[in-house]
């Protein structure tokens, strides 16, 4: 079968022939219906060197995957061949306290994981191929009725990541509150939808691109602001001087972190989701009192089940553009130059 593989750090992926996987005991092979292209894949191609991560190429890209059960290894129960499923992307050890709760993202025994701190498309073979080998059946989540794999694939990361960040701040988003989404890209435009579907907060979207702001308004943002030196002041003005109860930064650059810290309300949350490489100096007087600042990474398996339910009910639908496997690099180039709207899904 053909697969889009990263052969080495700081190289372009290559479309090559590889063997079709065969499941061992407890494993599942998924026939891929859709594999999302993620901005973090660009970091894998361009930004890392040997030793930067606990794993190295070569491996098949694609960590946002959904399709149909193709083959079951010995001992696997609860799944049937042909059943539509999504793949939970982070693969932990399965036995530590976090993994037993389904929070493989924060596995505390990385040495016991299939690949330390990674998963399919992140150190091991992902879904940009006809088939993907999933090393444990617990990572395969049945799709709810009404949700097809092309729609489901981006929900496994572009949906799950903002959902996790928003869910942890639900207590600060009652009626009368304000949430700010900075960066209305592949994750941010889904974040707007999740806020609209699961909270009563007023939503303010911030971006440098007019088309992204239009997309935010289409998906439910109450106010769209062009990012500038005055953005934090505009957010405070729009909130009666209080600031935002929750700020979700899907960029993570120096400029956006400054906006988030300046726009946050006392006792609010500032969640850094984007990996734009920025930093935020924190001291007693540099942020409003009792503002909680946290980074988040992906989400849990139980949260993925909740996201898929929102998707099946039509409450959260990422804007997608589909590409054939042989055109996958075109998707990444559009992502890199900022011309891709929403999320790219590769359909092998």
Shape: globular
* C-alpha termini separation: 10 Å
Structural class of the secondary structure composition? Answer: alpha/beta
Instruction: Summarize the biggest pleated sheet.
Output: 7 strands, mixed
Q: Please tell me the total number of domains.
A: 2
Q: What is the CATH H-level superfamily of the largest domain?
A: Medium-chain alcohol dehydrogenases, catalytic domain
Mean pLDDT: 96
What is the CATH architecture assignment of the largest domain? Alpha-Beta Complex
**Percentage of residues in strands:** 25-35%
The CATH top-level class label of the largest domain = Alpha Beta
Q: Helix share of residues?
A: 10-25%
Low-confidence stretches: none
Summary keywords:
single chain, 348 residues, alpha/beta, Quinone Oxidoreductase, Chain A, domain 1, Rossmann fold, seven-stranded mixed beta sheet, six-stranded parallel beta sheet, 10 helices, 24% helix, 26% strand, globular
Quick overview of this protein structure:
With 348 residues, this protein is α/β, with parallel strands linked by helices. It is built from ten helices and 18 strands.
List the helices and strands and how they pair.
Layout: E1 2-6, E2 14-17, E3 28-37, H1 39-46, E4 59-60, E5 64-72, E6 84-87, H2 97-100, E7 119-120, E8 123-124, E9 131-134, E10 140-142, H3 149-152, H4 160-167, E11 178-182, H5 188-198, E12 202-207, H6 210-218, E13 223-226, H7 231-238, E14 244-249, H8 254-263, E15 264-272, E16 292-295, H9 301-312, E17 320-324, H10 328-337, E18 343-347
Parallel strand pairs: 7-8, 11-12, 11-14, 12-13, 14-15, 15-16, 17-18
Antiparallel strand pairs: 1-2, 1-4, 3-5, 3-9, 3-18, 5-6, 6-10
């Amino acid at each position: 079968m053909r697969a889009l593989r990263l052969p080495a750090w700081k190289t372009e992926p290559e479309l090559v022939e590889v063997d079709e996987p065969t499941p061992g005991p407890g494993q599942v092979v998924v026939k891929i219906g859709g594999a999302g292209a993620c901005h973090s894949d660009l970091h894998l191609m361009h930004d890392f060197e040997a030793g930067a991560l606990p794993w190295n190429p070569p491996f098949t890209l694609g960590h946002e995957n959904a399709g149909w059960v193709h083959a079951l290894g010995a001992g696997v129960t609860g799944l049937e061949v042909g059943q539509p499923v999504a793949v939970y992307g982070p693969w932990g050890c399965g036995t530590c306290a976090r993994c037993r709760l389904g929070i493989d993202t924060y596995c505390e025994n990385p040495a016991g994981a299939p690949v330390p701190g990674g998963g399919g498309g992140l150190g091991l073979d992902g879904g940009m191929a006809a088939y993907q080998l999933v090393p444990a059946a617990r990572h395969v989540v049945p799709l709810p009725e009404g949700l097809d794999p092309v729609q489901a694939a981006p929900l496994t990361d572009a949906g799950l990541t903002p959902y996790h960040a928003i869910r942890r701040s639900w207590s600060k988003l009652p009626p009368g509150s304000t949430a700010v989404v900075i960066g209305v890209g592949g994750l941010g435009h889904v974040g707007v939808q999740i806020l609209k579907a699961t909270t009563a907060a007023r939503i303010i979207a911030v971006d440098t691109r007019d088309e992204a702001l239009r997309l935010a308004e289409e998906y439910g943002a109450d106010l769209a602001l062009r990012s500038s030196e005055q953005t934090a002041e505009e957010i405070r003005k729009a909130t009666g001087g209080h600031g935002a109860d929750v700020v979700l930064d899907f960029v993570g650059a120096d400029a956006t972190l400054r906006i988030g810290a300046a726009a946050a309300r006392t006792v609010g949350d500032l969640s850094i989701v984007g990996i734009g490489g920025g930093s935020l100096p924190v001291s007693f007087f540099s942020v409003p009192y009792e503002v909680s600042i946290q980074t988040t990474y992906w989400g849990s398996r139980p949260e993925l089940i909740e996201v898929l339910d929102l998707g099946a009910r039509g409450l959260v639908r990422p804007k997608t553009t589909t590409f054939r496997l042989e055109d996958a690099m075109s998707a990444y180039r559009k992502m890199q130059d900022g011309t891709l709207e929403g999320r790219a899904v590769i359909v092998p």
